């Protein structure tokens, strides 16, 4: 129905455009046409915009809230005898059973009340969908007729259309802000709910992480502990391994490309780095599980080191491969933005290429390179798929790279995959971890951008 | 330092000077060597990555099939209602005919495991489509079960002791009989593209995942393309330089660096919990991807707008166009190739995103392609993730094959972007 409504909006807007343009043309060609303010097309666009946009907003809002409204209606329509003595959770269960029944998925033998409610829901859904189409159509026709009366030679249709367009553009640029606000509010909201169940100091400083708690009262499970320090430590360990792999490779690649490589080499190496940067992370994850982890395990076995099958080293190493292009391109930029005069001066004094690099270019580019490394670190901390596939699930507090550790992102995914109920501390803990992740990565990014910006200003 | 330099003329021809020079040049060569070593390591790792995927995924593009004669006996299949026949027995009898030496129930069970588990449904569908075969013999070429597939591709070592082999000696004997009878073939595996997910590796395909990814990308494009362009035009052409626009710009830059999983949390908490979009629906996945792609869209559009020379704007303004007309009629059309290039690259990034789709539930087990944007589905990267987690050996090569398909899409998209850039973009 939403699809049909949107189609209807498009068709009626087109009709409105031609109606408006047609009536504007009638006076445009005639006597005194030099007094017409706007081109006929703008008169058409004026009507089309006012016909289309309100109806579009109406349909989107209607579609977003129809479900919730009907749910409430269905709940309140259930007979008193059926709802008496039922907790909200049980009512929710009944509601989802009604919804399943209404969409044709029958499990077992539904109660007669449920069956009746499902039929009511179906009928209401039918009515509501049609009502949406009818109301939208009526609104559009009403606006069309009204706007049509505004068309006149002196009417400033262009200015009107341009104002609407400007407003739309402002709205679109605010979407980015709304996204950030949405992220912060949703993370904070669920995290506060979590900190009501688990004190914040216990979460931030506790040393034991055992989120596998009982969801129902009769389940056998651990008591649950939400001390996130082992999770943070695991994240840092894997990110540190990644940086140890990526920084030398990325930095030396950049040094070679800036100082030694000719165009031929550069034209080959740069696209290869871009390919490496464009590979989806799930591919790296599979590579880690299938190739790197067994190889590391075998190597560990040969050297007599006990190696876990999902060692931190495997995940960190592959993550390091992933961020090589990141570090190399950012270092490349930083080295290249050192003024050419400094480089030429050094070479003119008889310094070798390596002396120019280590004594002039690197110190000058150091802030930019540091900024790049911080960005790479934030990338590593927030990276998900590699660690979900290659790192472990159990939080151990260790710095042995051959051990299995877990990370913030692994915990978020493992706690939210599958069915989630939003009142269990297990689910809410994922949002608390997400909040920490968001704050840390945001902090690193802002810091990195500040460093890079400050350094740029020095030379400009 | 200046004092030592002034102590007297330096003898540049002395041995010490030559030694110093040599060591300085050695240091230079060392640095150069480190650079070459670093680049070779990176290139080598990429090579290993791609080689393992190609070697691992190549076999999955072919599927071992067995050609078997099924006698459709009237006692099992009623011509009046062919869909309700006892096709289990049809398949069992057909296999027994092939290997009459299998007499004990245990042997017959082993024999039955040669064919895919769903063989009876293939036979049923063929009979329903053509009921005239009832009473005659129907010859079908059906997928072999995963272990036989692996055996036929040489991935199972025949010389291993039976206890360590996934195909036992009995099955090996039956398989050899079939090979001798010319009944084993390995054609191109179209099922990989036309089947949806399945619990059986020999039947699992990517159709559902590709459709899901298509819907999600469509939603992502429909939202992020117009919103991104509108936002970029506003910020680049209209916005006054004040704190408010500075805030928006900083915000967009930071949004581009927020970990993708955080967008997944947003999608779960807002789109699914508050808006009530069904879990696993491509609509929810597409909306999350749209929010992630938006910063990229805005940044590339702004760069494309910046690249249009000011003389175009001034010329149009000079002949009396309004600011809106300048942008809509002149600047935007000239910037469009650049915007399109950036859009395709942004969509390619979105196609490879996995983590946010996991959180909105697009990793469900779905055995048919989604019929719309509200039906549960998977996407290409999440399908790869699901297969990578499956214990069956057959899924390992399917995973590699799925990755190759995904990389193929990415290469095509980036190729189109590069082509567009070279053909359409104007250099001023």
TrEMBL record, chain A:
Chain ranges of the ABC transmembrane type-1 domain: 232-448
Top-level taxon in the UniProt lineage: Bacteria
SUPFAM superfamilies in the cross-refs: MetI-like
Transmembrane domains' residue ranges: 6-24, 45-65, 127-147, 168-189, 236-260, 272-292, 312-330, 428-452
Biological process annotations from GO: phosphate ion transport
PANTHER family: PHOSPHATE TRANSPORT SYSTEM PERMEASE, PHOSPHATE TRANSPORT SYSTEM PERMEASE PROTEIN
Official protein name in the record: Phosphate transport system permease protein
From TrEMBL, chain B:
PROSITE patterns linked to this entry: ABC_TM1
Annotated localization: Cell inner membrane; Cell membrane
Biological process annotations from GO: phosphate ion transmembrane transport
SUPFAM superfamilies from the UniProt entry: MetI-like
GO cellular component labels: plasma membrane
Region annotation (Disordered) ranges: 1-21
Top-rank taxon: Bacteria
Any one GO molecular function term: phosphate transmembrane transporter activity
Entry membrane topology: Multi-pass membrane protein
Primary site of residence: membrane
TM segment ranges: 31-58, 214-235, 255-277, 283-305, 326-351, 401-420
Family: Belongs to the binding-protein-dependent transport system permease family. CysTW subfamily.
Pfam families noted in UniProt: BPD_transp_1, DUF3333
Domain ABC transmembrane type-1, residue spans: 210-417
Keywords from the UniProt entry: Cell membrane, Membrane, Transmembrane, Transmembrane helix, Transport
InterPro entries in the record: DUF3333, MetI-like, MetI-like_sf, Phosphate_PstA
Native source species: Methylobrevis pamukkalensis
Name of the protein in question: Phosphate transport system permease protein PstA
């Amino acid at each position: 129905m939403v699809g049909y409504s949107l189609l209807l909006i498009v068709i009626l807007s087109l009709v409105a455009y031609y109606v408006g343009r047609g009536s504007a043309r009638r006076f445009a060609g005639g006597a005194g046409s030099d007094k017409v303010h706007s081109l006929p097309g703008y008169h058409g666009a004026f009507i089309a915009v006012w016909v289309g946009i309100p109806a579009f907003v109406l349909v989107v809002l209607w579609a977003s809230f129809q479900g919730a409204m009907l749910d409430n209606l269905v709940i309140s329509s259930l007979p008193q005898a059926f709802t008496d003595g039922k907790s909200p959770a049980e009512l929710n269960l009944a509601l989802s059973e009604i919804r399943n029944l209404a969409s044709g998925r029958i499990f077992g033998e539904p109660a007669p009340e449920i069956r009746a409610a499902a039929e009511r829901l179906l009928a209401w859904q039918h009515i509501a969908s049609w009502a949406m189409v009818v109301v939208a159509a009526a609104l559009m026709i009403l606006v069309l007729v009204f706007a049509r009366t505004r068309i006149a030679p002196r009417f400033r249709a262009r200015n009107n259309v341009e104002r609407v367009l400007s407003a739309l553009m402002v709205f679109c640029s605010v979407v980015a802000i709304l996204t950030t606000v949405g992220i912060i509010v949703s993370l904070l909201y669920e995290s506060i709910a979590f900190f009501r169940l688990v004190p914040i100091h216990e979460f931030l400083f506790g040393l034991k992480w055992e989120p596998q708690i009982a969801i129902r009262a009769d389940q056998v499970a651990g008591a649950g502990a939400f001390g996130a320090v082992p999770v943070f430590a695991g994240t840092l360990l894997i990110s540190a391994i990644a940086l140890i792999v990526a920084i030398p490779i990325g930095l030396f690649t950049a040094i070679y490309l800036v100082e030694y490589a000719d165009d031929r080499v550069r034209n080959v190496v740069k696209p290869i780095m871009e390919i490496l940067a464009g590979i989806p992370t799930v591919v790296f994850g599979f590579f880690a599980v299938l190739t790197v982890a067994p190889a590391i395990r075998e190597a560990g076995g040969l050297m007599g080191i006990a190696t876990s099958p999902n060692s931190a080293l495997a995940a960190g190493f592959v993550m390091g491969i992933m961020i090589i292009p990141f570090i190399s391109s950012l270092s490349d930029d930083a080295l290249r933005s050192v003024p050419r005069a400094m480089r030429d001066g050094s070479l003119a004094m008889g310094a070798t290429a390596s002396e120019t690099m280590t004594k002039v270019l690197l110190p000058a580019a150091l802030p930019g390179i540091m900024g790049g490394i911080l960005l790479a670190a934030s990338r590593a901390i927030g990276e998900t798929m590699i660690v979900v596939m290659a790192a472990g699930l159990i939080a151990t507090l260790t710095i042995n790279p051959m051990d299995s550790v877990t990370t913030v992102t692994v915990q978020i995914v493992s706690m939210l995959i599958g069915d989630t109920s939003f009142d269990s501390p297990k689910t809410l803990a994922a949002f608390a971890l997400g909040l920490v992740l968001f704050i840390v990565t945001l902090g690193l990014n802002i810091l990195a951008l500040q460093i890079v910006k400050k350094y740029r200003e020095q030379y400009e | 330092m200046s004092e030592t330099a002034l102590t007297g003329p330096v003898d540049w021809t002395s041995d010490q000077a030559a030694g110093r020079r040599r060591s300085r040049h050695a240091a230079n060569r060392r640095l150069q060597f480190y650079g070459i070593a670093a680049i070779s390591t990176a290139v080598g790792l990429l090579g290993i990555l791609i080689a393992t995927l190609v070697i691992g995924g190549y076999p999955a593009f072919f599927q071992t099939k067995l050609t078997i004669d099924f006698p459709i006996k009237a006692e099992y299949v009623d011509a009046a209602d062919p869909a309700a026949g006892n096709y289990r027995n049809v398949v069992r009898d057909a296999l027994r005919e092939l290997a009459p030496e299998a007499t004990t129930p245990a042997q017959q069970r082993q024999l039955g495991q040669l064919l895919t588990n769903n063989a009876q449904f293939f036979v049923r569908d063929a009979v329903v489509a053509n009921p005239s075969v009832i009473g005659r013999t129907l010859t079908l070429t059906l997928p072999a079960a995963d272990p036989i597939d692996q055996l036929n591709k040489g991935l199972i070592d025949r010389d291993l002791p039976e206890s360590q082999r996934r195909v036992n000696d009995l099955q090996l004997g039956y398989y050899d009989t079939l090979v001798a009878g010319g009944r084993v073939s390995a054609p191109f595996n179209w099922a990989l593209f036309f089947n949806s997910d399945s619990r059986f590796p020999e039947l699992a395909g990517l159709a559902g995942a590709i459709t899901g990814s298509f819907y999600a990308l469509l939603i992502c494009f429909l939202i992020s393309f117009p919103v991104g362009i509108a936002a970029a035009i506003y910020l680049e052409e209209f916005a006054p330089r004040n704190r408010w626009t500075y805030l928006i710009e900083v915000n967009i830059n930071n949004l581009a660096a927020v970990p993708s999983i955080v967008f997944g949390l947003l999608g779960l908490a807002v789109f699914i919990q508050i808006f009530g979009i069904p879990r696993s629906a491509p609509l929810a996945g597409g909306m999350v991807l749209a929010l992630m792609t938006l910063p990229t869209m805005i940044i590339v559009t702004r760069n494309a707008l910046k690249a249009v020379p000011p003389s175009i704007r001034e010329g149009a303004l000079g002949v009396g166009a309004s600011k809106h007309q300048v942008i809509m009629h002149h600047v935007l059309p000239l910037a469009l190739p650049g915007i399109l290039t950036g859009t395709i690259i942004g969509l390619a990034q979105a196609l490879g995103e996995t983590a946010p789709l996991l959180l909105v539930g697009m990793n469900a087990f779905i055995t048919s392609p989604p019929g719309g944007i509200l039906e549960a589905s998977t996407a290409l990267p999440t399908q790869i993730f699901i297969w990578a987690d499956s214990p069956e050996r057959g899924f390992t090569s399917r995973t590699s094959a799925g990755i190759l398909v995904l990389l193929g899409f990415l290469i095509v998209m980036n190729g189109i972007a590069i082509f567009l850039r070279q053909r359409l973009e104007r250099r001023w």
